[in-house]
C-alpha cells in the first residue's frame, strides 16, 4: 500500500490562507480493511486530507510525513497474535518544502503536476491473511477487531514507485475539500478571535459558490497521518 503527500507540492508558492489543506493519496487502500473494520470506498486512489492553520502567515514551510501503523506480532503462547504499534519516518523520502506569499498562486487542487516534481510518499507491505488475536482490540468509534495482519515498511530506495505524481485529485473531491476549507474559514473568521488574514466576505461567498455543497468523510484506517 502506498501513501503519497500530493498537496501542497514541493517547491511551490501559494497565497496565504487561514486554512491550508494537506492532501494524501492512498493506493491499494483496500489492504487497510484487514487492520481496521472501516467502510472504505471503491475509489483508488483514496484521498485523505486535513486542514491546518500553521501556514496562514507568509513564510517558508517544511512538511515531513510520519506514518504510524499496527501489525501482528506472535504472542508468547505461539497460537495467537497481538497488536504492536510501530512508527517509522523516512524523512528523505517524505518531505515537502513550500512557501506562502502575497503574490503566490491560489490553491488549485486539480492543477497538473510537472514531470520534474517528485512526490513524497511511503509504502507498506500488507499481507491479506488475517490472523486471530489473543483478545479483541478496540478500534476507533467503538469498533472491535479480533484479527490482524502482518505489515512491514519498505525503504524508499527499495520501492518501485509507480509514478506517484500521476495521481490526480478529481474535480468532485477537490470541490469537497475546498468546501470544507470555506466552511472552517467562514466559521473561524466570524468568531471573536479572527485571524489577521481573513478574506473579505465577498471572496468567501464566491469560493463557496464555486465549491458547492459537496462534502467528504475520510477514514484514516490503520495509520495516523501526522504533519
From TrEMBL:
Domain of life assignment: Eukaryota
Ranges annotated as spanning the membrane: 203-226
Keywords, ordered alphabetically: Membrane, Transmembrane, Transmembrane helix
InterPro entries given in the database record: DUF7136 (IPR055560)
Domain DUF7136, residue spans: 1-37, 38-198
Entry keyword annotation includes Membrane: yes
Protein name as annotated: DUF7136 domain-containing protein
